[in-house]
Amino acid sequence: MNTKKVRKMAYEKAVNLKYALKTSPLETLMSIDNFQVSAGQFIGQEQFANFNLKLDSESCLGKVAQAAAIAEKQFPEAKIEMAEVWEDWFANTMLKMLKEEPVRRLDPTFMQELLMYEEPHLILVINGKQFEPLSIQLGQAIKHPRIKPFPLWEGITASVMVSEAWLEKNPNRKLEILKQAEKICPGLTLVRENMCAPLELLGKMGEVIKNAKWAIERRPCARTLYVLWLFTKNQVYYKQLAEKYTEEIKKYF
After folding, report:
1. Which of 12, 117, 144, 211 is the most buried (most CB within 10 A)?
2. In what order do the strands lie in the sheet with 146-151?
3. Which of 62, 47, 75 is CA-nearest to residue 17?
4. Any idea what DSSP says for residue 23?
5. Residue 12 pLDDT > 90, yes or no?
6. What are phi and psi of 133, to 5 degrees?
7. How many CB atoms lie within 10 A of CB 150?
């Protein structure tokens, strides 16, 4: 996988989108009317990884890539970046609801949706302004509290490679693909988090913990806290997990 191939695929996919050309990139992207509604937690990880590999608009990655192609084509002078969301607006909203209404911890759908919004995902940053594809469905611009910008097609390519690695069965090959992704776009927590599984299979527990600690310093989330607690047995991680998400969260990993 390389940036040239990924960019070409995004442009080919974007041809099928319907939108109105407005005076600004964000207004234009907000007018897209035929993005597929993301299946999210209702499909298996394998199918979702295949959506990502094809840059299908069923996935967040596919939406971001196709939107990037439109913005780049229609507004060639715009500064377009990919950004990884390091603090999610939707997750924060649900955590606030959980705090105000603790009974929600007993609702599997609510808890699973919270975890879904904490999964690493991408948005676009165009001339310094965020474009979150879910803004189209909500009919309002969503601004995440904390994001980390990266070069556009390098970031998207590395993210596609994570799905390629996920579908690979051999742990050595998985790790090789992820290391290549890291070289293409250094600094993505998505890449480092996904390194943990093959490293565990290869018995490299020190590196698992190192990568998890690196990721959680940048993008705190329940899943990484759980991994750190599981492999270090350090109760500090469990305390943070239980206090922020309630002890019920353990059921959903």
Report:
1. 211
2. 129-131, 122-126, 80-87, 146-151
3. 62
4. S
5. yes
6. -50, -30
7. 21
Question: What is the residue type of 126?
Answer: I
Distance, in Å, from the CA atom of 152 to the CA atom of 83, rounded to the nearest integer, reads 8
pLDDT of residue 41: 47
Query: In sequence order, what DSSP letters do the residues of 186-227 get, joined into one string?
Result: TT-HHHHHHHHHHHHHTT-HHHHHHHHHHHHHHS--HHHHHH
> What does pTM read for this prediction?
0.91
pLDDT of residue 242: 94
Q: Which of the four pLDDT bands, split at 50, 70 and 90, describes residue 196? A: very high
Residues with Cβ within 8 Å of 33's Cβ and at least 6 positions away in sequence, in order, are 18, 19
Backbone angles phi, psi at 109, to 5 degrees: -65, -45
- Classify 83 as helix, strand or coil: strand
Q: What is the pLDDT of residues 22-41, one digit of tens each?
A: 999 999 999 998 786 554 44
User: Exposure of 161 by Cβ count < 10 A (0-12 exposed, 13-18 middle, 19+ buried)?
Assistant: buried
Look at residue 233 and give its three-state secondary structure: coil
Q: What are phi and psi of 35, to 5 degrees?
A: -65, 140
Torsion sign over Cα 161, 156, 207, 244: negative
Asked if pLDDT for residue 47 goes beyond 90, the answer is no
Q: Which of 50, 60, 186 shows the shortest CA–CA distance to 131? A: 60
DSSP SS3 for 39? coil
